[in-house]
Design brief:
11 helices, about 60% helix, elongated
Length: about 450
């Protein structure tokens, strides 16, 4: 083999191993310059960056600890990490496939082969080296190698998306758990007051000061309130179990840690959100969809390359030694395969690759549109819940004032006991609604951070 030819082969192999993944591919969708859901409490800033440690804004030590546990031990996140490791291994295999494959074989034997050995037993030792190398002069393998790199980037973005979703679910479940706990306490307090009322009315009935109608009405109210507790306790236990699973442990293992939550600190209701273009560039699901599209482009290019020849270099070198003279057999050869008539097989593969590319592009565009809608919906929900929360806070104050007035009028004999208890029940209902709204506000904030793709860059 001439040195010039060997040099050419080495250059071709080097170029093949340097295949690059495709650069960023546009979705052809122009995002708006501003979010439509902004108001005086929601500020959109072109210079603002996505907040990745968003849970720290809630200033809750228990939530901080739960986030650390989930990142370290969550099983779904562990699966996503393993997929990235698999993609790295596949890339290593693809890079190695661009280089020669060399096999060695050693065979030792002793025997009498008749006339060939003079009718005497002899020892024979054979050693061979075989090398095969696909010489990618026409770049047949470059798109496949680029595709492997793009699949690695897709797996990495998918892992980031899993982390964003995990932290969002953990945060919302944590706030739900506190809500259920407070709702149980409010309902139990309400039930205690209603039971006192029922006992009082029963006592009045014995003195002919209350009718059976009053007793049944008060008893029905007690039963109705008591019926809320089982479902609230069930929701609390199920949420507690779900958080344990998110932390990567069996239900009950981390209950002590999870239940150390204290009363939430007041929210800073004003928030700053990144511009739409910044959000789209940060969201890992958008990045994953874009890399999936890039992978499909490389797949189409690889299908087209099937029309080019397949060239393989084959070499052989051996050593045979015995009592006879040692010999050194060798050979060097090339195989050249060019498709001539395939009855449309390659064209069918190209058509299939084109269809897959179209699907990937449309999925990419759909992901971009859904990302924009996620943020708009999150901002709208937060904005409206702020208004509802303000009204509920006013309602609590008004009902408490009404309860104080009812107590004074009852003492002066202007209203009956049942009227006082109805007003007291209204206070507890308003307090329960406000606690629920406070929880929704925090969950809406989590949705805003998640819609921006916050949480993966740790």
């Amino acid at each position: 083999m001439r040195p010039r030819f060997l040099y050419m082969v080495m250059v071709v192999a080097l170029l093949s191993s340097c295949a690059h993944a495709l650069p960023y591919q546009s979705s052809a969708i122009t995002p708006p310059s501003l979010w439509s859901g902004i108001n005086s409490m929601i500020i959109s800033d072109d210079k603002a960056q996505v907040e990745h440690h968003w849970w720290e804004h809630f200033d809750d030590a228990t939530l901080d600890e739960l986030v650390k546990e989930a990142i370290a031990n969550n099983k779904t996140l562990g699966i996503a990490r393993a997929r990235v490791q698999e993609a790295w291994a596949n890339l290593g295999y693809a890079n190695a496939s661009q280089l020669p494959e060399i096999d060695g074989l050693v065979n030792a034997s002793r025997g009498n082969e008749g006339l060939a050995t003079g009718y005497k037993p002899i020892s024979l030792v054979e050693g061979t080296f075989q090398a095969s190398w696909e010489i990618d002069i026409f770049g047949r393998n470059l798109p496949r190698l680029a595709q492997t790199k793009e699949l690695l980037q897709y797996a990495d973005a998918s892992q980031q998306a899993v982390l964003v979703g995990l932290l969002a679910e953990l945060g919302k479940d944590y706030f739900d758990l506190s809500n259920y706990k407070q709702q149980i306490e409010i309902t139990a307090k309400n039930l205690e007051n209603q039971q006192k009322t029922l006992d009082l009315i029963k006592a009045q009935q014995k003195g002919a000061m209350a009718s059976d109608f009053d007793v049944q009405r008060a008893a029905a109210q007690v039963s109705s309130t008591a019926s809320k507790l089982p479902s609230l306790r069930s929701a609390y236990e199920m949420t507690l179990n779900r958080i344990n699973v998110l932390l990567g442990v069996a239900p009950g293992i981390k209950d002590e840690l999870i239940q150390t939550a204290r009363d939430f600190k007041p929210l800073d209701q004003r928030i700053i959100v990144a511009a739409p273009a910044t959000v789209l560039a940060n969201r890992p699901d958008v990045k994953a969809a874009e890399r999936n599209f890039a992978t499909s482009i490389s797949g189409t290019e690889a299908a087209k390359k099937l029309y080019f020849p397949d060239i393989n270099l084959l070499t052989y070198f051996g050593i045979e030694g015995s009592h006879m003279p040692t010999v050194y057999p060798w050979s060097v050869g090339l195989t050249f395969i060019e498709p001539i008539i395939d009855f449309g097989r390659i064209r069918a593969q190209i058509n299939a690759a084109n269809a897959q590319q179209t699907q990937a592009f449309l999925n990419y565009q759909e992901t971009v549109l859904e990302a924009l809608a996620d943020m708009e919906n999150a901002l709208t929900n937060y904005k409206n819940e702020l208004s509802r929360n303000s009204l509920l806070r006013a309602s609590v104050k008004q009902n408490r004032r009404a309860a104080d007035l009812a107590q004074q009028q009852f003492k002066n004999g202007f209203i009956g006991l049942l009227d006082v208890l109805v007003v007291q029940g209204n206070v507890l209902d308003a307090e329960a609604a406000l606690v629920d709204s406070d929880t929704i506000l925090r969950k809406d904030l989590v949705n805003i951070y998640t819609a921006a793709g916050g949480g993966w860059d740790l």
